[in-house]
Amino acid sequence: MDPLRLGDLHGSLTDPVLAAMEFLNEIANRYPDAVSFAPGRPYEEFFDVQDLHRYLRAFHRYLLDEAGMDPDQARRTLFQYGRTKGVIHELIARNLAVDEGIQADPESIVVTVGCQEAMLLVLRALRSDPRDVVLSVSPVYVGLTGAARLVDMPVLPVRDGQAGIDLADLVARVRQARTDGLRPRALYVAPDFANPSGATMDVPLRRELLRVAEREDLLLLEDNPYRLFGSTDDRLPTLKALDDGGRVVYLGSYAKTGFPGARIGYVLADQPVDLGDSRTGPLADQLSRLKSMVTVNTPPVSQAMIGGLLLEHGFDLAKANLREIEVYRRNRQQVFDGLAARLPDAARLGVSWNSPSGGFFIVVSVPFPVDDALLELSAREHGVLWTPMHHFYGDGVPLPHLRLSISLLTSEQVELGLDRLTAFISQRIQTGLT
Amino acid sequence: MDPLRLGDLHGSLTDPVLAAMEFLNEIANRYPDAVSFAPGRPYEEFFDVQDLHRYLRAFHRYLLDEAGMDPDQARRTLFQYGRTKGVIHELIARNLAVDEGIQADPESIVVTVGCQEAMLLVLRALRSDPRDVVLSVSPVYVGLTGAARLVDMPVLPVRDGQAGIDLADLVARVRQARTDGLRPRALYVAPDFANPSGATMDVPLRRELLRVAEREDLLLLEDNPYRLFGSTDDRLPTLKALDDGGRVVYLGSYAKTGFPGARIGYVLADQPVDLGDSRTGPLADQLSRLKSMVTVNTPPVSQAMIGGLLLEHGFDLAKANLREIEVYRRNRQQVFDGLAARLPDAARLGVSWNSPSGGFFIVVSVPFPVDDALLELSAREHGVLWTPMHHFYGDGVPLPHLRLSISLLTSEQVELGLDRLTAFISQRIQTGLT
User: Fold this and answer.
1) Using a CB cutoff of 8 Å and minimum separation of 24, what contacts does B338-343 make?
2) What CATH number belongs to A6-46+321-433?
């Protein structure tokens, strides 16, 4: 047959966001010896294949001893088709209570194949009409943009400001959208150590955001995968924990606090849906119905891995990640100190960086626009990779900012990477001056 | 906040297909002691939790010994984010060669979270425009209908006839659709022991279907999860194996030949896509890009289970399933013989059944329309469950046919179930006569 034409396939496949992500992967493959501040992957030195066997055994024991199953039921839970909403919902609810102070009804939780499927389900549910749109702080995690593209749902950007979100801009955007005949359904937001900005909202801003959501009749889609990776003393409450009005749909991920290869995420969606005949049920039930058309169930063998991990650590993933939290703290500090030491005249040169107290990401601002060609040059001539910030805005316009991810590197790699990064930056500034 | 209205959520959530499936699940839960000829689940008596550990170890050893990874790479493959197209593609290609005689380029395979995600990816790719439609033999597996609803893609029904598909009707439907301004993109088809009809296409019909697809410029989406569950001597070639023109996208599932809890499916899509600049790449690459927005990757721990199983059985799942194949053969024969023995005057009563030589499903025709109320009565008064055939047509019109699935029952359960089923049928006929 004749080749298919890309233009005859779904529009998301020609979206610049997708091409951008692929360029970033491709360049990382092309320069395998570069020090990479690019991927937002968790630290991997502590992974041990024996853990997988132990987690599986722990979950199996839980099914027998705690969940009250006989051996046939337990075996069936692991091998057969199962509950669409998942089989570790009770365990996730206990984890939410311990780590987030959230009291969740397990029946309002849908276990998903990574947080990506959770985002897709929520946006698929909300996109019922061509007028339906979602808002998002810009810059934004590309997974959200991707899920929206897949269901043909426009994403309207909201300015982040320095504090994490500019509420005046949010209100203006929502009202303008309504004037334009659109239906703003929800705002996607990452309140703690956001990807890519590193920004964290303070508590008064969180409370005010909840009030705005109430007033403007918006759902808030809270994505919070980095929250535990800050100081253990000053963790702020999630939006969901502060949510008196039932406005927050909580998107969960165990990719960073557990491990990415389990591909376990979830969505806590306890909003009532009117089913007619005076009956209501949680939004989670509708997401589950959509899930039956996407992946049927999340693999129970994979749920068992995260279930076992939660059981092993008494549902306290902050404690389970003590070593990782220390690595991330050390790496962040090393970057802050290392940049200051290597660029003593940063201010004069027009170079600066933010100082998030947690998470994986640091944004460096430089006195020149940062495009993909510059990333390629940095990789080729300096052996260091990072991410141009413009990729998180989706409009392709180069910005004078780059994102560093510190999560995957050893201390030695951070030092070497900083040598190379600052050499690159200094040379670009020199080149610009001559 | 006020309850959300179901009508403000995606249209698939008010689709009768979804409600029908839920009714079937719900009734099974309400009558747990009924003998159930309803679920299309594989036989589960041979599952053993120790297998999971062994599969995982076998796959890990393969990464080290055969795939040439060092221990860090192998660990990373199991724990980290990974290749979007999957990590068992080489193993699946070897399985396709052994079991199906298909020579597949591993780069044209995308490993998916069950066959459901594979169907969703293909339909999402093909639905680029409101004019795009997919055709399907009717009656059809509800998973296909669900995936189509999720991407708002109409499914045009094609008559199945007795042979598996009525090609004259196919051509007429395609031409009518074009006349109506639609773009028929593909035909979904299950050539062997189809769910729910049990029909199998003979080889001349397969060849003719390929010619029609070529002439009418259609892709064929071949779904073939039951093929190995027939006689080992007379297995027919898949459409993909006969496919000279590159028309067949092959949808694969290990839910029946492996186990459902792994949730591992795949799609083999080797059709070239024109990428511009005289470059082409397989359709699989585009499906992979869509997958990055749906589930990111299929859980590697779950891929490891099927990878280990394939390795353990030398890629020969027909051999790995010898015991299951015998159970299914025995159960089918027991139903044929048991119905004949219990209904010696079946012909006179207007009762008949087909006699598939493989697969999970048998269709029983009765001299009265079969609706959901009758299923409820059968469950309540006779303690036996089955599936009204009308659910696979999607129009809600009761038909005088019911589907029996024989896959999950022991020999004793089949006997008891047949006693109850024939009592139910006889009583309905009596009731109709008085």
Assistant:
1) B338/B414, B338/B415, B338/B418, B339/B364, B339/B418, B339/B422, B342/B418, B342/B419, B342/B422, B343/B422, B343/B425, B343/B426
2) 3.90.1150.10
